Amino acid sequence: MTDLSNIENEIAQDINNINNLQALEEVRVLWLGKKGKLTEQMKSLGSMSPEERKNFGAKLNQLKEKLTEQLNAKREAFEREEMNKRLATETIDVTLPTRPHDMGRIHPISQAMEEMLTIFAQMGFNLAEGPDVEDDWHNFEALNFPKNHPARQLHDTFFMTEDREKLLRTHTSGVQIRTMENQKPPIKIVVPGRTYRVDYDATHTPMFHQIEGLVVDKTANVAQMKTVLTEAFKAFFGMDDLQVRFRPHYFPFTEPSFEADVGGELARIVGKEWLELLGCGMVHPNVLKNCGIDPEEYQGFAFGVGLDRLTMLKYNIPDLRSLFDADMRWIEHYGFLPLDVPTITRGLSMNAGLKK
């Protein structure tokens, strides 16, 4: 039988020589590892008599427990010492002022887009999206555009192929067609997205944003359309007394068709009595037929508004092109922090500050 007093003295010597966590781990493996010295002693118990096994095993277990306690105590001491060192070297002076930092801004168009989508979602509209690169059928033909319509010419549309079958969509109405082709009425969708036309000045850009809406069911009518649009823009501009009027107009894909204007204080901001805001109307029966919907059973209304112009109007931004200039000074001035509350008054005051 092995003399455990010699083993205990050897362990004590190894414990005293531990001066860091790595050395501690080496001692633990040396004595308590799978091939450690104490582990080997445990294996020898099988060759002993029952009485010897009982006495030697008990002493061996006591020695193992004592060694484990010593190692744990050493480990805690080293870890505590390491923590104290870190606390001493990583202290923070909370009395110092915060370091200057730049905070990102939400672009006014993104802000306006989120506001409009939230308003229409509260009215029960579902979100629908589609591709920026469209085909002639979804962008023109299914929407009842005549072959000689100006929109189908090079001076108005970015065509991707010589046969003019592929193009950058000129409106998000193609998503309305795709929805009606793949979904049975009732339909109630709002469609946001980028659109593209060959135009560039203070109020037009080659790429701009639209939000369109479509409702198709058995009872859709002009009165519903007027109510939806009037209430939506009252909510967007935060003006309960907003004046809205509807004028007869022409669009290939709606009949009857209207343009909606806003008046009062909102129009006076840009020096006008009435300001054109959007186009709308009842979905043309030919469009319903092209999508496989029976116009004798169903009818619908649709509307489309330029989100960039809405943004300019609400936040008093004078030039549409500045929305796409990527000027950090501009975005810092007109952009939104996450908790900013957008209002007409805020837009006026921001513009006044910019002029100064």
Describe what this molecule looks like in 3D.
The structure is a single chain. The chain is an alpha+beta fold. It folds into 2 domains: 4-89; 108-331 and 342-355, BirA Bifunctional Protein, domain 2. It has 13 helices and 9 strands. It has helices at 4-16, 21-32, 37-43, 50-89, 108-122, 136-139, 173-182, 222-237, 265-268, 285-290, 307-315, 328-334, 344-355; strands at 126-127, 133-135, 166-168, 187-196, 207-217, 243-251, 254-263, 274-283, 299-306. The strands form 2 sheets. A 7-stranded mixed sheet has the order 1-4-5-9-8-7-6, sandwiched between helices. A two-stranded antiparallel ribbon has the order 2-3. Helix 1 (4-16) packs parallel to helix 4 (50-89) and helix 5 (108-122) packs across helix 11. The termini are far apart. 26% of the residues are buried.
